[in-house]
Amino acid sequence: MTIQSTWTGSADTYNVVRKQIAERWGEAESARYNPKANCLTFKQWLNNGYRVKKGEKALKSYTFVALKNDQDEIIKTFQRTVNLFYDKQVELIEKTEIN
Question: What is the span of the domain harbouring residue 27?
Answer without folding.
Answer: 11-98
